[in-house]
Amino acid sequence: MTNGKKDLVANWQTLQRIFIRPESEASRTALVKYMQQILFGLHDFLKENVGITREASLLELSQQFTDSRINKNPKKKLEDVIRGLIEDIAPHAVNVASPYFIGHMTSAIPFFMVHLATITAALNQNPVKLETSKVVSILERQVLAKIHRQIFVLGDPFYKEHVQNPQSTLGNFVEDGTLANLTALWVARNVCLNPKKGFSGVEKEGIAAAYRSHGIERSVVLVSRLAHYSLRKAGGVLGIGNENILPVDVDENNRIDLAGLVRTVDRIRENDNKTKILALVGIAGTTETGTVDPLPEMAQICSENRIHFHVDAAWGGPTLLSGKYRHLLAGIEQADSVTIDGHKQFYLPMGCGMVYFKDPYIMNSVAYHAEYINRPGSVDLGIRSLVGSRAATSLVLGSALDIMGAGGYGLLIDHGIDTARDFASEIQKRPLFELVTAPQLNILTYRIFPPELQKAWQAAGPEKKKALNNRLNRINIRVQRQQREAGKSFVSRTTLKRTREEDKVVFRAVIMNPMTDPDTLREILDEQEKIYQDSFLSDK
Amino acid sequence: MTNGKKDLVANWQTLQRIFIRPESEASRTALVKYMQQILFGLHDFLKENVGITREASLLELSQQFTDSRINKNPKKKLEDVIRGLIEDIAPHAVNVASPYFIGHMTSAIPFFMVHLATITAALNQNPVKLETSKVVSILERQVLAKIHRQIFVLGDPFYKEHVQNPQSTLGNFVEDGTLANLTALWVARNVCLNPKKGFSGVEKEGIAAAYRSHGIERSVVLVSRLAHYSLRKAGGVLGIGNENILPVDVDENNRIDLAGLVRTVDRIRENDNKTKILALVGIAGTTETGTVDPLPEMAQICSENRIHFHVDAAWGGPTLLSGKYRHLLAGIEQADSVTIDGHKQFYLPMGCGMVYFKDPYIMNSVAYHAEYINRPGSVDLGIRSLVGSRAATSLVLGSALDIMGAGGYGLLIDHGIDTARDFASEIQKRPLFELVTAPQLNILTYRIFPPELQKAWQAAGPEKKKALNNRLNRINIRVQRQQREAGKSFVSRTTLKRTREEDKVVFRAVIMNPMTDPDTLREILDEQEKIYQDSFLSDK
Questions:
Q1: Which of A29, A408, A489, B201 is found 20 to 30 A from B245 (Cα to Cα)?
Q2: Given a cut of 60, is residue B55 above it in pLDDT?
């Protein structure tokens, strides 16, 4: 490509050359060689360790990234940049692809996803408008219809009418589940605080005018207390106020407490005519425990009270593709809107949130036009969307569906749930551990609860129990941190809060990597037992 | 990889294999071959035409994308999917890389961007939290500091203190400029409607409570009428109401009219104590005309009236890297927040919006925590961010800055502005055309205004002028459409609205592709002249 650093900028011709198709055999060979280094060099570096190290070493590391100047001249050639990323950056990244990384909703992805992401970058289409995407906008509509159909199962005539109808919107691709939830509540807010005589709608006039016109003083959204924090954030962003995202307690299975929910709905509807319920949110796979709310009963409550029903299936959504476990999401077809993340259990690279709406016209409540794009009636997908310019992620998801088939995704889902159940049995077999939340999908929580403390617990009164629980929390925090810092495996940690119980620190395991098998999980438990014995022997 | 379709899913071992590093030479060779096809196959297809075709052919095309079922078994092997994307999809995509595509803010990107995007996908880090990104979060902070420094130029001690300080936030990567503007106004709203005695802030309690507590009835944002529609959308989303994003008229140079702005500010501050001004937005590169608002004067107004000053430099931001034209953005360093898009003039692939804040603590007004991530005090970048999970785009921008240097980007900016000025002269030389808005940066608008109609215009009264203008609009709409449908080149079209003038339909040219030179532009004008002559000969 270029021989020296200065050549790259000093010379306009050289700069131009990087924008066009390299014609010389040597240039083409070099570009392919770089790609080869990327494909296999990164794999080689990532295969070793999970690699979440200590805070201290992180601090040291950060001292190498403090220069805030941009060089006038190029600092590195492409070749050196790629080598640097492979040799200096990758070893300090987190090996989310390791089967021993069971701490978060990020995992290995099939290698072909990297190829598909490359195609997306190379085509560089922008689906905000037809003039920068054309066939890709059409393909996106089809991919959205495919997932919509898995959720809402509305039959051939519906999809025939809407799949390529510019007036319809079946859903949106956004960056992540946070923006998908925000989009869903944005629509729900606008439908609830809709235009009426003398009022042109909340989107135009704002919340304060909407409340005045609708004769209320606040609006609320009801969610389980295990809801993702993005729902609170959406409340803040949308001007509802995040305090008005009201958490409802959960039952002993970590599902929203239906009796409590009904009480809350009735109390508001009967005694508080200054408050409107904008939406009720069911979760299909809570972030902390992977549990699924009782969706059919929640749908029923929404239908009786004419409340927007949103289901946050960012995690659990792809379970719909499993013949064996699809029933766990029953009721989702009654939702008004649904969030699903492609970068979670569709195993796409980062950046693929999605939101779906049962009513293909409901997004008219958030439509925007401009003179230069998104003209009314056009196929421009930016008309009804929170985001404007964005990558053509539908190319990746659409291709992945073709390559994997529903059956392929189904097998991955089945593996995760079956392995999580197996893991739960193993935890229950080991005296040192307590299974705290059993897996409904493929997430479970557990903690170290040594037999001698279990015994003490049974004999203890409330004060003593509090002290014991604090001690358990300290033990689990320390073991989790030491395991993380050892770098071989990673289980995350969270604090489960219940109204009538002490806060419980637990390990959280997310089983989505198909390479994570029962042996992997036994090794992880072995390591935790060893860390506990080595660290707390003196405590006993 | 696999021999038949059924093998791919019927067999769990086969499915697992796609998640691990291929060890056999044959598999590795195949993966590299696919990458080679992607790199050069797409280039080959894209080199021919711009390819925005007629609506009719689009309708035909869309009939091939109506199947909304997901196959149970895999439909295609990876090889066939890649071939399909290259042979069936790419030819119907838009060749945004063509030098003749001068209609939108999307263009050719350097080929190395594709490599960098591939690395990002392969590493698949998620910067929402340190536990899924580690060094990438640190690198992101450094990249943010580099751009922050270009904007605000705050000196060594500032950047030394903040570049790696977990308590500071210099900016965010988001999906696009729309979300960047939304983030900026979200922060501005929360700072303006801040907590006070008996009120815990708008983020917690919502807009209605905030207005009650602050004793107001509405809040507004002042922008030029040429502002991007995302600002109106942000007003809608944030609960302010998009009608309260107040457009201020522009002067004869399409910059916000300062006298009008001052009048509006004074009127609100002196006579309307029920209205608060949340923010004032200056534009550094309007979408339609590429003009830069008078930033120093606007900064002065904001400073005198203690109003948040946001600059939407989604388009113009990278001009800061040009020694020759940096001065065009003077005053931006006085902004409180700034939007810049990486996928525009940093030539990154889609999906790189950015927002920057001068005050490294101002984003505390939008901080969110959760039990499992984003714990207070952690380095988790998701604490203060609209979006949660997202791709590690900083890897791409950071590497691109190393490869290009400020100097390389500067040359690209200089080329765009110089070429646009040259194009403006050429337009002025040709009798058939009228230059409507001269380029301040690298965007200009013009229209066909045949000499005989110019003559008629000079003699016409108001009614006649209206009729003539309508006729001109029809001519320009038709020529733009015919040129687009011919598929050789693409100039976009917009309608310029001024308060005291008729709506003017114009061609809009965005000169950012380094392969677009004066010859290209002359060819585009030649084509427009020919289309006009062929189509409107009978009109004359």
A1: B201
A2: no
Q: Note whether residue B393 is domain-resident.
A: no
- The region of weakest confidence among A46-55, A135-144, B271-280 is A46-55
pLDDT (tens digit, 9 = 90+) per residue, A458-481? 999 999 999 999 999 999 999 999
Which residues does chain B have within 8 Å of residue A175's beta carbon, measured at their own beta carbons? 174-175, 179, 351, 387, 389-390
Q: How many domains does chain B have?
A: 3
Chain A 99-118, residues with CB within 8 Å of chain B CB atoms: 103-104, 106, 108-118
B89:A135 CB<8 A: yes
Q: Name the more confident of B54 and A106.
A: A106
B154 to chain A: closest CA residue = A68
Please name the amino acid found at residue B521: L
Same domain for A525 and A411: yes
> How much is the pLDDT for B5?
43
Q: Which amino acid is at A127?
A: P
Q: pLDDT of A347-387, one tens digit each?
A: 999 999 999 999 999 999 999 988 767 777 788 999 999 99
Residue A333 belongs to a domain: yes
Which B residues, 416 through 475, put their C-beta within 8 Å of a C-beta on chain A? none
Q: Interface pTM (ipTM) of the complex?
A: 0.95
Do residues B74 and A410 make contact, with C-beta atoms less than 8 angstroms apart? no
Alpha helices for A217-294 (secondary structure H): 229-237, 258-271
Say if residues B441 and B319 touch (Cβ distance below 8 Å): yes
Q: What is the DSSP letter of B89?
A: I
**Do B352 and B471 share a domain, yes or no?**
no
* Preferred mutation among A119, A320, A385 to probe B, highest tally of B CBs within 10 A: A119
Q: 10 Å Cβ neighbour count for A452?
A: 9
Question: Which of B72, B129, B497 is the closest to A407 by Cβ?
Answer: B72
Closest chain A residue by Cα to residue B218: A208
We report the CATH number of the domain holding residue A487 as: 3.90.1150.170
Measure Cα distances from A126 to A133, A390, A495, B100, B352 in Å: 5, 6, 41, 17, 12
Q: Where are the beta strands (DSSP E) in B233-288?
A: 245-248, 275-283
* A156 lies in some domain: no
Beta strands per DSSP E along B181-238: 218-224
One domain, residues A89 and A222: no
Pick from A34, A208, A415: which is nearest to B115 by CB?
A: A34
Distance from CA of A226 to the nearest CA of B (A): 10
User: Are B81 and A399 within 8 A, CB to CB?
Assistant: yes
Task: Please identify, among B365, B397, B428, the residue that sits at the C-terminal boundary of a domain.
Answer: B365
pLDDT digits (tens, 9 = 90+) for A302-321: 999 999 999 999 999 999 99
DSSP per-residue letters across A491-512: -EEEEE--TTS--EEEEEEE--
For residue A48, the enclosing domain spans 5-95
Cβ pair B66, A160 in contact under 8 A: yes
Beta partners for residue B250, in sequence order:
B256
Indicate if A188 and A332 belong to the same structural domain.
yes
Shared domain for A209 and A313, answered yes or no, is yes
Domain assignment present for residue B261? The answer is yes
Contacts of B237 in chain A (CB under 8 A): 182, 186, 237-238, 386
Residue A256, SS3 per DSSP = strand
Quick check: B339 and B312 in contact, CB under 8 A?
Answer: yes
Please tell me the distance in Å from B459's CA to the nearest CA on chain A.
30
Contact yes or no for A403 and B493 at CB 8 A: no
Residue A22 in contact with partner chain B when CB distance is under 8 A: yes
| Last residue within a domain, chosen from B88, B106, B124 | B88
Say whether A69 sits in a helix, a strand or coil: coil
Looking at the structure, tell me whether residues B179 and B309 fall in a common domain: yes
Q: ∠B262-B267-B271 over CA atoms, to 5°?
A: 155
Query: Under an 8 A CB cutoff, do A115 and B495 touch?
Result: no
What's the CA gap between B269 and A265, in Å, rounded?
43
Q: Verify that A209 and A335 share a domain, yes or no.
A: yes
